[in-house]
């Protein structure tokens, strides 16, 4: 069980009212000397009441002059953290079913203890099972194949990997973002390679037979000059969806009124955060909360709130701003039964020290 750390956070101007957003506590999900915990947004988060599961990677720390401070020459594990008390305490689990395929290299990292190669999915997955979870994973960011796994016991064991089609694209780089539509119907949002085989643009895909076959539904936005990747999507009506997309330094927001068949650009939710993916959740009162890592000084974790289904956004809510460098963020957020939020991320208070997986428990007010 990890030890808890407590701290205070400053809120942006206008959010300091007693009934406004407030941080309850910061905790550590995973922290080990000499290790590098990273990238929850690449894996996913799931919750069943106060039981929360978040995926992330564990490698070895190495202080690099640029980029991520991870030792690219040593293996990385795909693991999960589980909390049974609403995110206050956590244990690390290493399900055998989540081991990446043998000899797989992901973003330069070599997977530890390689698992099975992706196979064709037989279909029939019950997406409405009360303990269902699903994760999509990629082999590399520009144009490799992708795969998916699913669980019917809250992530204790996983079936897969199953191969995801390339949809006629140069390649895919799938991460976890999906909406269950029925027993065997699921709408997912992935990144596919651009025509030049570089990352990437966002596409909506759907299965109607429990994962056996998949169809390309639509692209979200035009093919960008740089990249548009790592979507996060919420349902706001019977056929209405809102998705947020990571751009190089900002976040774009789109809306669909026809179950993902077409999309309209709404706005740039944030203009410059130094480059980090969004995560959106919808509160019980209908507001949308977006969280993201902030890779500019002062480094940290922030949020914004929309009261009108993504048409406009609040000023930044600063969940924490004690980061030691840019190598942080990749948030995943869930809503607890009591209305409070749990936002998980990877973090450092000192750029020369290990990266850990942290979480902030907070109220949106």
Please render the helix and strand layout as text.
Elements: E1 4-5, E2 22-30, E3 35-38, E4 45-48, E5 51-60, E6 75-83, E7 91-93, E8 105-106, E9 109-111, E10 133-138, E11 146-151, E12 159-164, E13 172-173, E14 178-180, E15 186-192, E16 201-207, E17 215-220, E18 229-235, E19 241-246, E20 251-256, E21 264-270, E22 279-282, E23 288-294, E24 300-306, E25 317-320, E26 329-335, E27 341-347, E28 356-363
Parallel strand pairs: 6-9
Antiparallel strand pairs: 1-2, 2-28, 3-5, 4-5, 5-6, 6-7, 8-9, 10-11, 11-12, 13-15, 14-15, 15-16, 16-17, 18-19, 19-20, 20-21, 22-23, 23-24, 24-25, 26-27, 27-28
Question: How would you describe this structure to a colleague?
Answer:
The protein has about 375 residues and is mainly β. It has one domain: Neuraminidase. About 0% of the residues lie in helices and about 45% in strands. Strands 3, 4, 5, 6, 7, 8 and 9 form a seven-stranded mixed beta sheet that branches. Strand 10 and strand 11 (about 145-150) form a beta hairpin. The radius of gyration is 19 Å and the shape is globular.
**Which band does the percent of strand residues land in?**
35-45%
Percent helix range: under 10%
Separation of the first and last Cα atoms:
30 Å
Q: Which residues form runs of ≥5 with pLDDT under 50?
A: 1-16
How many domains make up the 3D coordinates?
Answer: 1
Secondary structure class reads mainly beta
Number of strands: 28
Let me know the largest β-sheet.
7 strands, mixed
Q: At the third CATH level, what is the topology name?
A: Neuraminidase
Report the principal-axis shape: globular
Sketch the topology as an H/E string, one letter per element.
Answer: EEEEEEEEEEEEEEEEEEEEEEEEEEEE
Number of helices: 0
CATH class: Mainly Beta
Radius of gyration: 19 Å
Global mean pLDDT: 93
> From the 3D coordinates, which CATH architecture would you assign?
6 Propeller
């Amino acid at each position: 069980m990890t030890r808890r750390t407590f701290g205070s956070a400053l809120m942006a101007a206008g959010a300091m009212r007693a009934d406004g957003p407030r941080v309850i506590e910061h905790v550590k999900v995973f922290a080990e000397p000499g290790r590098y915990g990273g990238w929850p947004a690449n894996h996913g988060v799931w919750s069943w009441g106060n039981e929360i599961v978040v995926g992330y990677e564990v490698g070895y720390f190495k202080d690099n002059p640029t980029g991520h401070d991870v030792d690219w020459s040593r293996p990385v594990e795909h693991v999960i953290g589980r909390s049974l008390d609403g995110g206050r305490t956590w244990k690390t689990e290493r399900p055998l079913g989540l081991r990446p395929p043998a000899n797989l290299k992901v973003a330069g990292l070599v997977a530890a203890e390689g698992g099975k190669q992706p196979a064709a999915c037989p279909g029939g997955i019950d997406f409405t099972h009360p303990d269902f979870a699903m994760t999509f994973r990629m082999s590399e960011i520009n144009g490799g194949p992708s795969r998916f796994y699913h669980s019917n016991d809250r992530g204790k064991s996983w079936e897969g990997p199953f191969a995801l089609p390339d949809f006629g694209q140069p390649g895919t780089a799938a991460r976890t973002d999906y909406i269950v539509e029925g027993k065997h119907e699921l709408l997912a949002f992935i990144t596919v390679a651009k025509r030049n085989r570089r990352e990437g643009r966002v596409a909506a895909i759907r299965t109607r037979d429990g994962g056996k076959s998949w169809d390309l539904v639509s692209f979200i936005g035009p093919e960008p000059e740089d990249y548009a990747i790592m979507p996060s999507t919420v349902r706001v009506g019977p056929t209405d969806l809102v998705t947020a997309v990571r751009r190089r330094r900002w976040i774009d927001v789109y809306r669909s009124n026809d179950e993902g068949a077409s999309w309209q650009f709404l706005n740039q939710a944030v203009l410059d955060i130094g480059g980090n993916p969004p995560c959106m959740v919808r509160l019980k009162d209908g507001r949308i909360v977006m969280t993201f890592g902030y890779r500019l000084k002062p480094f940290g974790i922030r949020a914004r709130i929309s009261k009108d289904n993504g048409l406009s956004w609040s000023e930044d809510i600063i969940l924490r701003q004690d980061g030691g460098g840019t190598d942080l963020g990749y948030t995943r957020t869930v809503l607890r039964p009591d209305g409070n939020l749990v936002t998980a991320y990877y973090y450092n208070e000192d750029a020369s020290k290990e990266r850990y997986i942290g979480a902030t428990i907070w109220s949106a007010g």
